[in-house]
């Protein structure tokens, strides 16, 4: 079955109204995307920020009349948007995505391998992963920075907390590298489920890796990682800053270079943070609690 894509290129102020209008017209799905490669500086956890230039796309059955949709577009939205319409040929989108997700190597003996593929190096540490609906495939610079530094910190024998665990990738990596026990926290129930599923794929028990929503009791640990974004990391500083044991280590990622000073200041009451590495404008911060 083919589909009609009806897209409105607009600004952040009109994007919510465009989304509502497309749903009112019968769109079976609506997606919003960045039209200008603009990072989001999310200062407030309670707000969902939008890109300055946003593409809002509604998906309709292919026999939907384009002229009728254009005629129904309210004047305010028409004046503030550019309209595009095209036919989207049907595909098996899950298989299409799977074709482009390949094993990734992060060190000579550390790989992230899609769960439906065979490890290129069976003797290496192979993290079998299916992200599902959660963030964290290992391909984004923030995640790869964390993975590399997690291995450098030699997690063997340590307790590990992954705050904002997403797919569970970092906690599972730590366990496969020898961590004694891990805890994962995420605000998204889909991420909690994805972490459980990926743990099972890697023969990790629920006792080894406990995952839950915020509010789950957490111990202090020798190693704490948080790969989120700068805004939430700042707001969560009083929570995350308390999690490392004295002498424990903290890795923070999801931070742009220009956000470093604010993050360092936010965590100063608990420990001093420094830049461990940079990649494509992103940094990972490292600190050891006194």
Question: How do you describe this structure in short?
Answer:
28% of the residues lie in helices and 32% in strands. The chain has 290 residues and is an alpha/beta fold.
Sequence-ordered SSE layout with sheet pairings:
Layout: E1 3-11, H1 15-24, E2 29-34, E3 53-61, H2 66-72, H3 75-79, E4 82-88, H4 93-100, E5 104-107, E6 110-114, E7 125-129, H5 141-152, E8 159-163, H6 169-176, E9 181-185, H7 189-201, E10 209-212, E11 221-227, H8 230-235, H9 237-240, E12 244-256, H10 260-267, E13 274-279, E14 282-288
Order of helices and strands: EHEEHHEHEEEHEHEHEEHHEHEE
Structural class: alpha/beta
> Could you name the ranges where pLDDT drops below 50 across 5 or more consecutive residues?
38-48
Beta-strand portion reads 25-35%
Helix content: 25-40%
Q: Calculate the mean pLDDT score and round it.
A: 87
Distance between the termini: 61 Å
Number of helical stretches of at least 4 residues = 10
Give the overall shape, derived from the CA principal axes. globular
Largest sheet: 7 strands, mixed
The rounded Rg comes to 22 Å
- DSSP E strands, number: 14
What is the strand arrangement across the widest sheet?
10-9-8-11-12-14-13
């Amino acid at each position: 079955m083919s589909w009609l894509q009806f897209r409105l290129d607009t600004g952040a102020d009109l994007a919510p109204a465009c989304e509502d209008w497309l749903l009112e017209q019968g769109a079976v799905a609506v997606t919003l995307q960045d039209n200008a490669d603009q990072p989001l500086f999310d200062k407030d956890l309670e707000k969902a920020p939008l890109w300055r230039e946003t593409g809002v796309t509604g998906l309709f059955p292919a026999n939907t009349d384009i002229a009728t949709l254009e005629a129904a577009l309210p004047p305010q939205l028409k004046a503030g948007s550019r309209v595009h319409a095209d036919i989207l040929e049907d595909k098996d989108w899950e298989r299409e995505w799977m074709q482009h997700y390949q094993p990734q190597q992060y060190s000579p003996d550390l790989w992230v391998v899609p769960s439906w593929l065979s490890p290129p190096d069976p003797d290496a540490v192979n993290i079998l992963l299916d992200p599902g609906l959660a963030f964290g495939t290992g391909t984004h610079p923030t995640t790869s920075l964390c993975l590399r530094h997690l291995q450098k910190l030699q997690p063997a024998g340590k307790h590990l907390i992954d705050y904002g665990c997403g797919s569970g990738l970092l906690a599972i990596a730590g366990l496969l590298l020898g961590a004694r026990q891990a805890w994962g926290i995420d605000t998204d129930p889909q991420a909690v489920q994805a972490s459980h599923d990926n743990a099972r794929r890697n023969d990790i028990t629920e006792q080894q890796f406990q995952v839950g929503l915020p509010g789950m009791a957490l111990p202090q640990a020798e190693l704490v990682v948080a790969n989120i974004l700068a805004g939430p990391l700042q707001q969560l500083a009083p929570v995350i800053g308390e999690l490392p044991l004295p002498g424990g280590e903290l890795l923070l990622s999801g931070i742009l270079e220009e956000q470093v000073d604010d993050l360092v200041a936010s965590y100063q009451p608990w420990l001093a943070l420094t830049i461990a590495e940079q990649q494509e404008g992103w940094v990972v911060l490292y600190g050891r609690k006194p």
